[in-house]
Structures are given as structure tokens and as C-alpha cells.
Amino acid sequence: SPPALVRTLPPGFSSGLLQTPRPVSCGVRCRELHAGEERPTPSPTAAPERRPFSRVTPEDMAFFSKIIPGRTITDPDILEASNVDWLKSVRGFSEVLLRPQTTEEVSQILGYCNSRNLAVSPQGGNTGLVGGSVPVYDEIILSTALMNNVLNFDSVSGILSCQAGCVLENLSLYLEDRDYIMPLDLGAKGSCHIGGNVATNAGGLRLLRYGSLRGTVLGLEVVLADGRVLDCLATLRKDNTGYDLKQLFIGSEGTLGVITAVTILCPRKPKAVNVAFLGCESFEQLLQTFQLCRGMLGEILSAFEFLDRECMRLLNTHLKLANPITDCPFYIVIETSGSNPTHDEEKLHQFLEEAMTSSQVIDGTVATEEAKIKALWSLRERVTEALTHDGFTYKYDISLPVERIYQLVTDMREHLGNRAKSVVGYGHVGDGNLHLNITSPTKDPDLLASIEPFVYEWTARFQGSISAEHGLGLKKRNYIYYSKASLAVALMGNIKIMLDPKGILNPYKTLPDDLQ
Ligand SMILES: O=C(O)CC[C@@H](O)C(=O)O
Ligand SMILES: [Zn+2]
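Above: inputs. Below: predicted complex with zinc ion.
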């Protein structure tokens, strides 16, 4: 029988997304590449069976307590928050939460877990939306929360070095005091950790201007599954000495190593920021406005986001946020960031005049002061929160050629008829990234069966990505084949085996079940 420390699942209780347990795929951790191999049929999102990892014993606890005294948590009330994801859609049953403060501590923990065959679920701010940051069964939760020191900031180059557990908003405030900003900004900034941002290659609201973390992250320190510390913590803009290994860990969702420190290139704080909130009659007009905006605002444009009328309805109903302009089918948030307030305002006003006279935009409002800028941004940033009050939410994060993104929403509405409560579209127009969200009063397997695989087939038909910026985690892992060739996925499996031969790091995530 399992040691007393480990609670077995209550009878009939499902772990994670588990509904119908699927037989363990093959148990083989070594997979050969076969040319022309058939792509496996994706299984439902149900979690695979627990793999035969060891269970935590009192001896293991004694070891952890010696390495990180007072920072081994077993209190069920504290563990509850770390076992459940932000959406409350995935639940694990871990009984151990470890809070290291240093890279050396992470190294010792992983070296030990690897030798004992104990599975580990790395966790940052736990704000992910695909079930990637919580355990599925009894994996040990390895939190970066106490690894929150800035290591260095070079005010000439703008290069920041910090530990992985720094909260994004704290880093932003730290940099703003020094006349710099972070190159990324997300709705979850108050909780998410930079290590988690990098591990998931989070996109967010500024990607249009500053690019993805694949460009702005200059270096990483990563603890590998066996405890070795990989020092790629470079601070160079240019470095072509061999393969760029840090890219493997960016977006790997904690399955290849635990990121412990990051160096990141930060832009100067803009002297002038303006936000315009505009309304359009059709998505066609919204796209024309985007084109015009790129032409007229070019170098000062820092965000071009959208939400539809349904999103606005949910913001009004659930969060009591008022629409600052007349009711429209589509709303745009445009942000400019530049170095000359007079020049930027003049450009923005010329653009708005042109957009209004050519009837691309029906109504709009502009903000230059911080409080109003914040209020306008919250209409875009808080859609996710509004959706959580609308019911059970099915979330899709799709990349498509920009002119196609809203067609998926209209096709989905037509396809579902009155079976869904709300079908909404919003997202990052500038990046060709749609957030399609569908709600129902409660979890509804029939509705889900109507949405999937329809949404994935639709996306694959236009060579889109089924996960633009949220990653695959537990929920989307089996749909990877809709966006990646079989050979690419098989190579990913080989990399996983090379770096984590026992598969202890964030098991059941990112890779499809046939490669777990
Ligand atoms: O909740 C979502 O689907 C999207 C969340 C986030 O990526 C956003 O852009 O607001
Ligand atoms: Zn987004």
C-alpha cells in the first residue's frame, strides 16, 4: 500500500481532466523516427494514467527539509492553491510544495528527484490557461515564488538579469524607476513570474512592437532534470557560437528543464503614451483601420488589439465596466509609444481624422493621462475575467493569417447555433492571434464535442496554429499534430528523452500521449 503521506484518489474521482482513463500508450520512452509514419489520432483531453513514478516517502521529506529548511510545505490549505489552475479547470493531488530560493537548491532538489524517480511540476505564478502549471497526480510542486531577486540591471544597455520568480509587474515597476520598461505586458502581470513567461513564451500586449521573448531574452540559466546547471546566462545581443540552446527552453513549458534566471533586453520607457478606443461597423473595416494605422503611425504604434460586441456585453454585465463610446460590432484598442508627445499626438489625430472621414471608424475616444489609459486598457485586459463569470469557458488561442481571424468566430457561431451561451472573439490583431472563447452554463461534453475537432480542423485548413501564445500544457497536448508535422513532433520527443530520460519534468504536458 502507498506510504501514509500519499493520499490515493477518492473512488470515482477524476484527476486533472481525466474522464475516461486511456491505457498507457506504450511505456516506451525511446522512440525512433520513421519516415512517412502515420499521425496518431488525437485522444480526448483526458489525462493519461499515472506513470510509475515513485511516491514521496518520509525519507524524501527529511532530505528536502535538510536542503530547504522551513520551505517544504505540506499544509493542505496552502497546497490547494498550487494544485488548482487559475481557471479552476484542472486539479492535481500533490502533497508536497517546495520553495527553493537559489539555483543551487533547485539543482539539489532535481538531482535527488531524478535519482529517486520522483515527478516534479515546476510552477511560477500559476496563471496559465492550458493546465500546464499544476500537477496532474501527485507530482512534487517546485515553486519559483521565493526566487524573486533582481540580479543586475545595466542602465546603458538596458539588460536586466533576474531570478525566475520575479513577478512581471514588480519588474516593470523596478524598470520604470530607471526609465526602462519590460518588453512584454500581460493581463496577468500582477501574478505571473518572468520564469513562467519565458517557459511558456508568453506573448501579450506589446509583442507587435517589441517582438517575442525569443528575441528579447538574451540568456537563461536552467537546471536540467538531473540537477546539472546549464549556464547560458549571456548578456550579448549577438552570439553565433553554435546552437542557440536557450531557445529550446523558451516555450518548453517546464518539460525540458527548470528556468532559474533570465537576462532580458529592455526598451527605454516611452516619453509619450496614447491610447485610442475605437468602434467599427465590420471586421473588414477593422482590418482597413489596421492597414491605415500601420501606414500612418508606423514607428510609434505599440499595440493594436480588438474585442467584439459580445465581449463588451460580458464586460458590462459581469464587471459593470461601461462602454466609453457608442455600441459597435467591433472595438479596437490602439496604443502609441514614442519619444515626442507633440509629434505623437499630432500623428494620432491625423490618423483618427482620416479613419473617421473614410468611415472606417464610427466612434472613438483618446486618452493621454494614465488613469484614463488604464481604464481603456482594462476593457481589453479584463475580457478573460468577465468570461469566468459567464459560465464554463472553452478557450481557443489561434494564430491565423490576420484577414481570416474573425471568420472562425462567425463560422463557429453558425456551427453551434443556440447550443452555446456566448461565443466571443478578441485578441491581438497585430499578431494575427485570435482568442475564441465559448461559454456554457456548466461543463458540457456535448457542446465540447461540437467545438472540437471542428475548431482545430478549421485552423489546420488555413495553416494556422492551434496555440498561438498559451502553449499546449495538459489540455492541448494531443492536438499538436494539427499544427506540427509528425517528424517535428517526433524530434521533440527525442529532445525530451535526451534532456529528461526518466520523464520526471512536468509529465503529461506539452508532448502528445504517444510520446509521454
Ligand atoms: O483568456 C483568453 O483566452 C486570453 C487571455 C490573454 O491571452 C489575453 O490576450 O487576454
Ligand atoms: Zn492573448
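The CA atoms of residues 110 and 200 lie 20 Å apart.
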